[in-house]
Amino acid sequence: LTNAETITLLESFEDTVDVVSHLQPADGNRRIDEFSLSEDNDFGQITDGQKALKVAFSSMSGWQRDFQVQLSLDVTTLLQSVIETEETGRYYLLYDILWDNTDNDAGWACNPLEIGGWMYGDQIEWSGGGQVVTMAYEIGAGTPDGFRLGLVGDDTDRTFLNFIFNSNTGQPMNVYVDNIRLMDTKPGNAETIVSVLESFEASTSVLAGQGRTENIVQNEVQAFITHGAKSAKYTLNDADGGWAQDLTLDLSGYSLLAEVLEIPQADRARYTLAWDWLVQLDDGTGGGWGVAQTWSPDNQLTQSWAGDGGLRTRAINLSTVPWDAPPVLTIFQHGGWSGGNIQLYMDNIRIIDTGFVPSLIELTSPSLGGTSFSFSWVSSPGKLYQVHRSNAVNGPFDSIAEVTADGDLTTFADPAPVANNAFYQVANVPPAPIFEEDFETGAAGWTTQDLGESGTLWELGKPTNG
Fold first, then answer.
1. ∠ CA(271), CA(217), CA(296), 5° rounding?
2. What is the C-alpha separation between 280 and 289, in angstroms, rounded?
3. What is the pLDDT of residue 14?
């Protein structure tokens, strides 16, 4: 099941620009001349309907909050419910954006976003203009615990998106925005499967330092671990905090990622590559505005740490990148630290599959007796099965039991069937991945024993006779 994502259109600017407003006062540094609806599609900037929002800038040099898009009451309710789920890799806020550089000297432009007042910390930096870029913000787990959307409007009941820009030109340029939408990558009958690729339990060999990076080591301080007993730790020295290549992450050895990337790009929205990262300032180091992290190839989103030292989860939906094989990612950092070093931690590199639908099995011999309802299915001894139940034929289904088959036919009795109608599914649950270790990077975490006290001694190295 690969094309199961649900797209909900939030705004496509077909009827009015009344939902768009300036963020700068009229007597301030307002640099937008006009908001309008445009039917111009020379660069393919209309991606939904017949029109796109056109924003005419007189210049775009320097960071500034420029304009706000107010969302409807229904969209506000939907987005708040999504934020409260905190499901990493499930929900993405997307929109399409283009800047036209045919009449100016712009070489690059950046566009961070505020979602309901929360500085999400992601931005796009794209070069050349004249090309539509799709922004994809992972929002299920992208906000702090307890976050509530900021509200505006006549009745203070609508949330908003604040668009922030910077570029390297002082000349006029047009920006087009269209097709603001929510992508839910999880079908109603699906399960989320998380497969850990790397948690640095054995080594940090997939990381290689560049530039300012020093001392890539394993960390055992629990505050900076999100999976297992260790994480990776590296130091950025007190050199210039500007953009620099600091690290490479070699993903080429992970067969599961390779299998996912064999799926056509448009069909892999259910898959997210994610990792966790945290920042710690050394004593005497000033945090400034924080630390930003991004990656290449196909560099799109930058994620910022805004001085709170909290956890960030880097989430890359694999339908947004054209990779056909696991890449070696180059990690860039940029920040406002000064006066000392900073420590960065990485952990829990994983693939999140929100679209896993187990194969369903034919159920036979239904029987209602006393206070229980039973049924059977053909099974394979030793295999694990999940029993799902719903009060509607189309779901959603909840898992109510797991059964390990001990023969060719398995019978299950629901001790507490629901009143009126109930619908059941049985699915074969795949076994956990087979553990593998080739000891090529050492034997960290392993101990040896001579269980039979035969005098056998085990050691790491090339096998020898005698």
1. 40
2. 14
3. 97
Lookup: tokens for 54 = 């056109």
- Token pair 């076994």: residue: 431
Containing H/E element for 296? Answer: strand 291-296
Q: Flag whether 159 is in a domain.
A: yes
Angle, alpha carbons 254-346-249 (nearest 5°): 40
| 141: in domain | yes
Give the up-direction half-sphere exposure of residue 219: CA atoms within 13 A in the CB hemisphere.
24
User: 3-state class of 266 per DSSP?
Assistant: helix
The pLDDT tens digits for 361-416 are 899 999 988 788 999 999 999 989 999 888 887 777 888 999 999 999 999 999 88
Coil, strand, or helix at residue 231? strand
pTM, two decimal places: 0.76
- Do residues 319 and 368 both lie within one domain? no
pLDDT in tens, 75-100: 999 999 998 887 889 999 999 999 88
3-class SS of residue 75: helix
Residues 368 and 349 in one domain: no
CA distance 303 to 313: 9
- The one-letter code for the residue type at 147 is F
Whether 424 contacts 445, CB under 8 Å: no
The two tokens of residue 382 are 């030793």
Residues 328 and 369 in one domain: no
Does residue 180 sit in the same domain as residue 300?
Answer: no
Query: Given 339, 356, 373, which residue is the final one in a domain?
Result: 356
CB of 232 closer than 8 Å to CB of 347: yes
Tokens of 458: 């085990």
Based on the fold, state whether residues 154 and 214 are members of the same structural domain: no
Instruction: Specify the pLDDT at position 448.
Output: 78
pLDDT tens, residue by residue, 229-243: 999 999 988 766 677
CA distance 387 to 379: 13
Do 85 and 179 have their domain in common?
yes
What domain range includes position 100?
A: 6-184
